[in-house]
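Dear colleague,

As promised, here are the two records you asked about, laid out in our usual form so they can be pasted straight into your sheet.

NAME FIELD: protein one
SEQUENCE, THEN STRUCTURE:
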Amino acid sequence: MIPRAVKRLFHQATISDPAFRFMFQPGPPNEVVAFDCETTGLDVRRNDIITIAAVRIRDNRILTSERFEAVIRPEARMNVDAIKIHRLREMDVAAGDRIQLVIPQFLHFIGGRPLVGYYIDFDVRMVDKYLLSLKGFELPNKLIEVSKLYYERKYGDAPPGTTVDLSFAAILRDLDLPVLDQHDAFNDALTTAMMYLQLTDLRQRGVRIPRQRQTDRPQTTLA
């Protein structure tokens, strides 16, 4: 697999649309963007984005007034299992815009800011598959994975054999964050933004998240 840094240099040198060169410039200092997608399924090649949302974070503030939300009419049929998760039916997204219109709007919202997400690699790959065909490049932004920040704060000094739980629920519980209606793109982006701020604060202060002993409570190990 080609490293993202190498792809970034290649795409920056070969970009054909000068209107999007701003994506390769640094965003405003002390700003990042949390974002999330809901999709017709979990196969990047065959499934489509149906909702995408993002919210800007400046210093230690979540700027809910600076948000991006879009409903997208997909080409792929809706996966029944996916509908059970995000509760969006084909009729619910039938009036949405096509992805060709949404992607440029999304790029102008995020600019060159780092992107924050929970298992963000999937969301980025979903965006990249459209972006590469539409504009000839992939997202060049720095990626910040909140589950990695959480792992560092809770399990970074754990002894071998420790059971690791990186689930969304575990992070919410340990950070004492409110449980919003999940699998809603904006709610998930907003929750991820709150996770990011708390975990960044813990790291800056050198504070670790306490671990319970293995016998105290069973934990779920994620593959």
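NAME FIELD: protein two
SEQUENCE, THEN STRUCTURE:
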Amino acid sequence: MRVIKFGGRAQDDARLPMVMRAAWAAAPASMCIVHGGGEQVSALQRSLGAPAEFVRGRRVTREADIQTIRMALSGGVNKELVARLTAAGVPAIGLSGEDAGLLGARRLGDADLGLVGEPAWVDVALLRHVLAGSYLPVVSPLARDLDAEAGLSRALNVNGDDAAAAIAVALEADELLFVSDVPGVKDPDGAVIRQLDADEALTAISIGTATGGMVAKLSAAMSAMERGVGRVRIGDLDALLDPARGTVLAPSRSLV
């Protein structure tokens, strides 16, 4: 079982449907996709006159922003990606994390962020049901607020990397693969680092070698490893078909 998280630029790559077709043909009914779409969310916010705001790299999400995020991710990015995969012969089914309570989350303890959550629950039975039907689940990372009052349908905005890590843990995935528009984590000279342990990942974050979206990927990767995912890798679209490509994350050497 493999969980694949596509970043915004990678999921717009024209080659993605055919690469996924080859990956699916090689291992049908054994993968789940989680997608992002931050650029699409920001573009829709701007078109509605509500500029995107970020605090410490995370999107500020107010009550009014939830509907915008639903439209951009679950209604736009998700359905477009599913349509492209289906046209290529991949039996994809689009799901929001809100569907049937697939993803449950609790708010982060940062009042400045608003309705931003951290995954705390995955309905793995729903995903296994979809997979058992030989379909590919494609998940939009919105989640049900587990602490909302009874009867309220409040949603939380969840980082796609965190959602992918939580799903990989729940599915007991053999691999969690973060697909980005770069071939892996790079050293200061621009060369791809083939293996990175947890201590080295923390150092890369602290000294600024890893920045922006790579910080979120490394943090989610370490969380997945700590909770039992067998292999975590960061790479580009070609890493889907080449298991040697990209950066493999490893536990801290002190724990090995």
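A couple of things worth noting about protein two: The chain has one domain: 2-255. The chain has eight helices and 14 strands.

Best,
R.
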